[in-house]
Design brief:
heterotetramer, A mainly alpha (315), B alpha/beta (255), C mainly alpha (405), D alpha/beta (407), A: 315 residues, mainly alpha, ABC transporter involved in vitamin B12 uptake, BtuC, 2 strands, 70% helix, globular, D: 407 residues, alpha/beta, Rossmann fold, 2 domains, 5-stranded parallel beta sheet, 12 helices
């Protein structure tokens, strides 16, 4: 029971982290229709910048400065890279962000090296918080959760209260209206893109030290974020939240299930020939199959229900 | 009226987007070989009606018949194969393909070329000849190799009609073929339409009433999602309901 | 006859090339190029001709390659499967996988299609790793190409013999793919790329057109896979993954997606960059990435597009007018390039030194990357080049516009 | 003038532009990860190769006028990339290929090298394996051109399991590995050698994870805790070991880790104080009593600011150099004929290269991480203490390999 609680906590942390990434992307996709393939690269930039900043002034200023820096980089990318290719259509934008992800993936090791950097959890939070079933629960994980939730609330508040938020919300629900919003639309795009990147950067700041900060970190998360955004429904923040938590929980819970399929099937009264041609399949355990789930859902949702879980419009 | 089961017959057609009903039970009957114009104030649902007939949107309710075949719920390409082709109000060509290739695409299906990879396109002689003929009829032969996207607006509009008729469909739906054209361009377009739709059934949406009365054998007036009048030009011209609809709309615009 | 001339010339060139580059290095390079050409052309069938951005194109190459590899192993067990015919097995594998993935992906177009293929790429790699008895897990599966029956005394073990297999198949595949562009399907693919909805109103189901193009593309990608199986004698999950798919996108786009032959340029260039520059510098990936982004922003037609833009000028016999302007671009371009290259090389070197490498050589020159002056020099070179280009480029463009009128 | 030759010559000049031009430069291509998750491990290997080569070049151990030079090729632990690099190295005239990280890569290389040498004997290459320890490499898939200078995983497991069985305080063992040939062989070995050997000792779990993919091992640690494990046997290396131990540390896991690769600095730094009492099996560690190697380790540390780790790289290159000197040639076939069956004396004793499967037999040490030893890792103020030395002959295992000299 307590073991289960731990698993759920871990799933929540991971899910909220995914949400932090996917909320930014959701805003960008919803407003601009740009599926930013480089989104996870901004996450990586966040982690690396936080590492560099924290070596100079410590973790807490980095928590604020790194996402801001990433946001500025994002805004610059939108203004001077994405906007010129916009007239060539969405596929050109996809190509641009694909190239951008590639280039960032090459530049980061240039600056910070190919080895993981020693970006550490601040000492204050590097303590066990409580113990459950003999397992210590690190305080930093709770901190991650709190930051994610705070960001979630801040985001909703910003969308509900500010003028920019009003425009963004209008654009999310009525994409055609964006065209009629008047002269400041390009500026809103730049701001939203920058803000989305900053959110990804923030996720990088708090995840980079909990896991590892290394040049491959964008690659390993990039596709999952897409799965979340598409599953949740393009432009739907609450959909992204649901999908993030779902994937986070599925991924984490399934690790605990090293139950081979043939046993699962025999529990259902089906016996199979384990030595037969399909023995790889029957011996495959649930936890090995779990990583496939998000991508399977991504493909199925796009092919059959393009609106996603809670979305109102098609990809 | 006409030979039932021939031509295009629409009965009880309805279409809603969410809670909003755009087409509210349209009845329309176009006889074989007839030139029929659909007119009506902006927002009456004319284009939507075309989209429903040609399979772009599924109808919410009602029935569409082409030459006695129920084509309700068919997809666009199936309806085309049944002999119904259309043009678009907003020019919808293949911008990177040349004029000739645009027309060849328009004719391809009905001139024997399936989705084949085995035969060369140039091997289909009748297809090339049909594209040539249409190009000539459109007066675009000298622009043969120009990409459609680089044509002048009027040329694009002409090509838009050309792509629709190139396949030799027996029923043609033209959505505002003269939209945005100058006086002389319009005249040329009307002559073109008259020429290329010879012997076919034509249904067109048109705002230019001069064009309508010039071309159409019969006219239907669509207002607020319903056909409020249908008949020969003279009859429709005198219809009171039509006047109200147009004047009402005009009055709304004025206030 | 005129339209066949390039193909005959290509055949002669293919016969001649191995004698110009007979070293092991030269042959390896040529073999990689041939495979890359087939793969890139098959990719461009989708992107350039059909408007389908496929982020999982390597799936089809991978399945073709794995199937060919299994056939190669069967040949080792005594089955009569001649090595030169393995690409046919690859084609079958590519075709089969295309039927499967295409059935899902081609229902949608443009962005949605791209996203589906992105998901498929991740999905397939994960699934491949789950079935080690078929795909060999992390190790992959390997075989021996000389195990097949000898034909006319050739066992296809040597690089030279492999070259001839690759060359023949590259020629055949390229020719067939080019021929496809002249068929109704080829034209419909263009139409679906330009305006899928209109295609529907011309009596064709656009999804079906996409599906057929996709399957055909899979067949040729499978041939590339078969060739790769012969050349590398190993297939692993890495051959199927998104990295391999990204590489083909890069080379195809850089070559130019607007023409049939653009991807050939791209394949040759990127393989050269990868193999030749790859030995000189670690930074080739960064260079090709930067080149790609620059192309997307400034020259979406790729190299072929740039060349093609000069066709009217050449026809008008005014190429001579441009030479002077283009020559004036060279100093700025060279300076900027030297600057960028210098900066990246220095960064790479510095990184390597931090990682423990002791030799401080950049492209064979003894330059100390830990000192400040090389960095300054590189930065100044770049800025000077950029400033020069900023002046000369608009002039050159104006000259081109004037000449192209 | 053939362009290809010209290009190859240019490449070769750039590749070999080492500091010294000698009468004969023997190039060694190191094909290992220099980027990605395992870059740290690959880089550490590279430093040891440079160090060992500098020693040999200074002392002339490879014979008069014969110098070693290193070409580093980054394979990202990918078998297919390794083969492209191998091709490149052979095309550039390299005859000595060395690799250590990833048995998956080693299988691809040994197979490709055998094929190459059969087809193109003039450009034969030798495979010097310093760390890929899947037993199959010297058994079912053995090959005359492959020489292994590290004990295979079964040899290590036999030593490790005999130690575990003496630890009466251990009752529940969890076997945790990377999911590829090597990890599978460790798991198989652990199950074979620990099951049913002691009534109060059982294996409570066995699990494999994808190589280099997992970034957060916490859920796995929680599984171990749930299973009540008090010992974890793992062949994980590089980041997969460092992150595993880090997660164990964070979650307060109390069990002991029995590892193959705990001793590398990268891992030790992550382990921290929680590593106390964890064990490793290795051919050397800093507190093995041997003055010459201690000197060497100090020199290495002075130069690279890293702890000396791969003693076997030094030994491997020393043996290769000696074989070259004895053969008076750098032709891999001649050198190989000397290496096969070679007896060699190094500071730790006599070692020998088995002629029947080209597996080096050398002394092995089981050691435990503890404070209060002579050489400590400054990061944790602990070091390894030997608790058992296994003599070369005790590590000999039966082999299914039969090697014939190349024609």
């Amino acid at each position: 029971m307590e073991q289960g609680l731990l698993v759920v906590l871990n799933g929540l942390v991971y899910g909220l982290l995914l949400f932090m990434l996917s909320s930014g992307l959701t805003l960008i996709v919803g407003m601009m229709g740009v599926l930013n393939l480089a989104h996870a690269s901004f996450y990586m930039l966040g982690a690396y910048l936080a590492y560099s900043i924290s070596t100079v002034v410590g973790f807490w200023p980095a928590l604020v400065l790194a996402p801001l820096a990433v946001g500025v980089i994002g805004a610059l990318v939108e203004r001077y890279g994405l906007r010129p290719v916009h007239r060539h259509g969405h596929v050109a934008e996809l190509l641009f962000t694909f190239g951008l992800a590639f280039v960032i993936g090459e530049i980061v090791p240039l600056i910070w090296g190919r080895l993981p950097v020693p970006y550490r959890v601040p000492a204050v939070l590097d303590v066990p918080l409580f113990a459950l079933a003999g397992t210590a629960y690190p305080a930093y994980r709770l901190f991650m959760m709190l930051i994610s939730l705070a960001m979630f609330c801040a985001l909703f508040a910003a969308l509900a209260k500010t003028r920019l938020g009003l425009v963004v919300r209008a654009a999310l629900t009525h994409p055609d209206m964006v065209a009629m919003l008047g002269h400041d639309v390009p500026r809103v795009f730049t701001l939203v893109f920058g803000a989305g990147c900053a959110l990804a950067g923030l996720a990088g700041v708090i995840a980079g030290n909990a896991f590892t900060t290394e040049p491959g970190m964008a690659r390993s998360l990039g596709a999952i974020v897409f799965a979340v955004v598409v599953m949740g429904g393009l432009g739907s923040l609450s959909g992204a939240l649901v999908a993030s938590l779902l994937i986070g929980l599925v991924q984490t819970v399934s690790i605990g299930l090293d139950l081979p399929f043939y046993k699962a099937l025999s529990a259902l009264g089906i016996t199979v020939d384990v030595g037969g041609r399909l023995h790889d399949l029957w011996l495959l355990s649930v936890n090995r199959a779990a990583p496939v789930v998000p991508y399977l859902l991504l493909v199925l949702v796009l092919a059959t229900r393009p609106r996603g879980l809670l979305g109102s419009r098609s990809a | 009226m006409n030979d039932p089961g021939s031509g295009l017959i629409v009965t009880g057609l309805r279409k809603s987007f969410g809670a909003l009903e755009i087409i509210k039970g349209v009845e329309l009957s176009v006889a074989k070989g007839e030139r029929h114009a659909v007119i009506g104030p902006n927002g009456a649902g004319k284009s939507t009606l075309f989209h429903l007939i040609t399979g772009r949107f599924p109808a919410s309710d009602g029935r569409i018949e082409l030459d006695g075949t129920d084509i309700t719920g068919w997809s666009a390409h199936q309806i085309f194969r049944a002999g119904l082709a259309r043009s678009f109000q907003v020019t919808s060509l293949f911008p990177k393909l040349s004029v000739f290739e645009n027309l060849r695409c328009g004719a391809m299906r009905n001139f024997g070329a399936g989705v084949s990879v085995f035969r060369l396109l140039d091997g289909f002689r009748p297809l090339a000849e049909q594209a040539e003929r249409t190009m000539e009829a459109l007066g675009l032969t000298h622009r043969r190799h120009v990409a459609a996207g680089s044509l002048a607006y009027a040329e694009q509009r002409a090509l838009e009609i050309g792509v629709a008729i190139a396949g030799g469909a027996h029923t043609i739906l033209l959505d505002e073929p003269t939209a945005g054209m100058s006086r002389t361009e319009t005249e040329r377009a009307v002559a073109l339409i008259r020429k290329v739709t010879e012997g076919r059934t034509l249904v067109m949406i048109e705002h230019d009433l001069g064009v309508v009365f010039d071309l159409a054998d019969r006219i239907s007036v669509l207002a607020d999602g319903k056909v409020i009048a249908s008949g020969p030009p003279d009859q429709v011209r005198g219809d009171a309901a039509v006047r109200t609809a147009y004047l009402g709309a005009a009055a709304e615009v004025l206030t | 006859m005129k339209r066949w001339a390039p193909w005959i010339a290509a055949a002669f060139a293919a016969l001649l090339l191995p004698h110009l580059f007979a070293s092991g290095f030269g042959l390896s390079l040529l073999n990689r190029m041939g495979i890359a050409i087939v793969f890139a052309l098959s990719f461009n069938m989708l992107l350039g001709q059909g408007g389908m951005l496929d982020f999982g194109h390597a799936i089809m190459l991978g399945f073709g390659g794995f199937l060919a590899m299994h056939a190669m192993r069967l040949a080792g067990l005594g089955w009569f499967i001649p090595t030169p015919l393995l690409p046919l097995v690859g084609a079958a594998g590519g075709l089969a996988s295309a039927l499967l993935t295409g059935w899902i992906a081609t229902r949608r177009d443009r962005t949605a299609f791209a996203m589906i293929t992105l998901g498929l790429a991740e999905l397939v790699v994960a699934v491949v790793l789950m079935f080690p008895s078929v795909f060999g897990g992390e190790e992959g599966i390997n075989g021996d190409r000389s195990d097949g029956p000898a034909i006319l005394g050739f066992d296809f073990g040597s690089q030279m013999q492999v070259y001839h297999v690759v060359a023949v198949w590259t020629w055949i595949s390229a020719l067939l793919m080019w021929r496809t562009t002249l068929t109704p399907l080829g034209r419909l693919a263009n139409a679906v790329r330009d305006n899928p909805e209109r295609v529907g109103f011309l009596g064709y189901d656009p999804a079906r057109v996409r599906f057929r193009v996709y399957v055909l593309s899979g067949l040729f990608a499978g041939i590339a896979g078969g060739l790769q199986a012969i050349n590398d004698e190993i297939m692993t999950s890495g051959n199927i993954g998104s990295e391999a798919s990204g590489a083909v996108l890069l080379m195809t786009f850089i070559g130019g997606i607007g023409t049939f032959w653009g991807p050939i340029l791209g394949a040759v260039l990127i393989v050269l960059l990868q193999v030749a520059l790859g030995t000189l510098t670690d930074a080739w990936q960064l260079y090709s990435g930067l080149l790609f982004v620059a192309m997307v922003v400034w020259a979406p037609g790729g190299l072929a597009g740039i060349l093609l833009a000069h066709a009217p000028v050449m026809r008008a016999g005014r190429l001579g007018q441009l030479v002077g302007h283009y020559l004036r671009l060279i100093p700025g371009f060279a300076l900027a390039l030297a600057g960028v290259a210098g900066l990246s090389e220095l960064a790479f070197r510095l990184e390597a030194i931090r990682g423990g490498a002791s030799t401080g050589r950049i492209m064979g020159l003894a330059i100390d990357a830990t000192a400040a002056w090389p960095w300054l020099v590189a930065a100044v070179l770049f800025l000077a080049g950029a400033a020069l280009l900023n002046r000369t480029f608009p002039q050159a463009r104006a000259a081109w516009q004037a000449a192209a009128q | 003038m053939r362009l290809g030759h010209a290009a190859a010559a240019v490449m070769a000049v750039c590749l070999s532009a080492g500091p010294v031009w000698a009468d004969e430069v023997v190039k060694f291509a190191l094909i290992d990860p220099m980027s990605g998750s395992f870059a740290a491990t690959g880089r550490l290997g590279e430093q040891h190769f440079r160090f060992a080569m500098d020693r040999i070049n200074e002392s002339g151990a490879a014979g008069p006028g014969r110098k070693f030079d290193l070409v580093v090729l980054d394979n990202e632990v990918s078998p297919e990339k390794s083969l492209v690099l191998l091709r490149k190295a052979i095309d550039d005239g390299v005859h000595y290929i060395t690799q250590g990280n990833g048995s998956s890569v080693a299988f691809a290389l040994t197979d490709a090298i055998a094929k190459n040498n059969k087809r193109d004997p003039a450009r034969s290459a030798m495979f010097l394996n310093y760390a890929a320890v899947d037993p199959a490499l010297t058994n079912a898939k053995c090959n005359w051109w492959h020489f292994r200078f590290d004990a295979d995983s079964d040899m290590k497991m036999r030593a490790m399991s005999s130690y575990i069985l003496t630890r009466k305080d251990l009752h529940k063992v969890y076997v945790f590995n990377q999911d590829y040939s090597f990890g599978q062989s460790v798991e198989r070995g652990a199950k074979e050698m620990l099951t049913g050997k002691r009534d109060d000792l059982q294996i409570v779990g066995a699990e494999r994870v994808p190589l280099g993919k997992v970034k957060d091992f916490t859920p796995y640690i929680q599984k171990m805790q749930a299973a009540g494990a008090d010992a974890v046997v793992t062949g994980n290396w590089g980041a997969d070991l460092a992150l595993l131990v880090k997660a164990a540390n964070d979650s307060g896991f109390k069990g002991t880790f029995f590892t193959y690769y705990l001793g590398s600095t990268e891992v030790i730094t992550e382990v921290g104080q929680a590593g106390r009492g964890d064990a490793q099996i290795s051919e050397w560690h800093a507190n093995v009593d041997s003055a010459p190697i201690e000197e060497m380790a100090a020199a290495f540390e002075a130069k690279y600011h890293q702890a000396f780790y791969y003693w076997r790289v030094v030994n491997m290159l020393d043996m290769t150099a000696a074989a070259m000197k004895q053969a008076n040639s750098s032709d891999p076939e001649k050198v190989g004929k000397v290496l096969a069956g070679m007896n060699f004396h190094n500071p730790l004793g006599d070692v020998s290269m088995r002629a029947d499967n080209h597996q080096l037999l050398q002394p092995m040490f089981i050691s435990v991480l503890e404070p209060g030893v002579k050489h400590v890792f400054p990061e944790v103020n602990m070091g390894f203490r030997t608790i058992g030395r296994i003599e070369p002959d005790q590590t000999r295992m039966a082999t299914t390999c039969s090697l014939a000299n190349p024609s």
